[in-house]
Amino acid sequence: MPNTDTSVREVIIIGSGPAGLTAAIYCARADLRPLVLEGEPSSTTDQPGGQLMLTTDIENFPGFVDGIMGPELMANFRAQAQRFGAEIETVKVSKIDLSSRPFRIWVGDPSADEPSHLAKSVIVATGAQSLMLGVPGEMELLGHGVSTCATCDGFFFRNQPIAVIGGGDSAIEEAMFLSKFGSSVTLIHRRGELRASKIMQERARSNEKINFRWNSEVTRIIGETKVTELALRDTLTGEESVLAVDGCFIAIGHSPNTGLFKGQLDMDEAGYLTTHEGSHTNIEGVFACGDVQDSLYRQAITAAGSGCMAAIDVEHFLEDIPEHS
Question: Are residues 121 and 74 in the same domain?
Fold first, then answer.
């Protein structure tokens, strides 16, 4: 358990994915001595390094001609932030009070009288998590045929059979994108009709590479070192079957990690933080970047870019407040 820090930090960054660590690099280079509260390895919602820690090959991050492993990329981000003086604590934030400055942050016991840290400004970079099926084989084969991002991984499945699980607009978008690469794309949906908008449904039905498995749910993802098959069950009859695929893309939604900020920061209907004028939230001195406020792009490079924006916004904010604030 870290000691309570009674000094008031210039900036505290919550989260250590591409957004949080890029913000840390820029804040450290601006001599703001940022503290990064990176999460805990056992946490499912804010693990250190974010979702890239669960990603194998990354081939679309600029500067890495031959690609790079997700954990290695995040280790590089982390080392670069520390090189410029960012301090990193491997702790999970349990409570935060944004009602007045300095902002008060607790790690560990949220019922403690005194906060663990005080800050003039806060950057929220807690990210979002992909909703998963919770079936055997899913986590074991994540990054080995199981993916939650067609834009990231579709290229790896050129001329191979692919499955997309889901029935909303996101699932259709994934299937449409993957049809450029795969030999076929099977859309697996629990119901007998899609939840996607009518125009998206029409596009999917008119794509000759996309076929449908209606009233079907995945019960197991099969493979030793990579995905080879999906075990399916008919939701109406209970009949079981097997579908041979090389790639399985889960597209049943995302959940932003914003529980800490409910009732304090403005969010949209899906729970994503709303920002304006760059990374500003509704509370002066609190900024948000990365997937916690981005429900559209969800890429490492866009998260890193928004982390840069947040750091620059923080620097300008701190320049404009009285020294004693």
Answer: yes
Residue 221 has pLDDT above 60, yes or no: yes
| Residue 302, pLDDT above cutoff 50 | yes
* Per-residue DSSP letter, 165: E
Which residues on neighbouring strands pair with residue 107, listed in sequence order? 93
Count of other CB atoms within 10 angstroms of residue 137: 21
- The type of residue at 163 is A
* Residue 210, H or E segment: strand 210-213
Residue 324 has pLDDT above 50, yes or no: no
Q: Which one of the listed residues 153, 246, 294, 313 is annotated catalytic? A: 153
Which residue of the set 5, 57, 149, 234 is catalytic? 149
Kindly report the pTM of this predicted structure: 0.80
What range defines the domain where residue 200 resides? 146-250
Per-residue pLDDT tens digits for 40-59: 775 455 567 777 776 667 88
Q: CA nearest 20: which of 325, 309, 318? A: 309
Are residues 76 and 119 both part of a single domain?
A: yes
Among 27, 46, 152, 289, the one annotated catalytic: 152
Provide the 3-class DSSP secondary structure of residue 251: coil
Domain boundary pick from 197, 225, 250: 250
> If DSSP codes are grouped into helix, strand and coil, which group holds residue 47?
coil
Told to judge if 153 belongs to the known catalytic residues of this protein, a careful annotator would answer yes
276 & 234 share domain: no
Evaluate if residue 68 carries a pLDDT over 80.
yes
Dihedral angle of Cα 25, 63, 149, 185, to the nearest 10 degrees: 180
Domain count across the chain: 2
The answer, yes or no, to whether residue 322 has pLDDT greater than 80, is no
The CATH number of the domain holding residue 123 is 3.50.50.60
Query: Which of 194, 220, 250 is where one domain is finished?
Result: 250
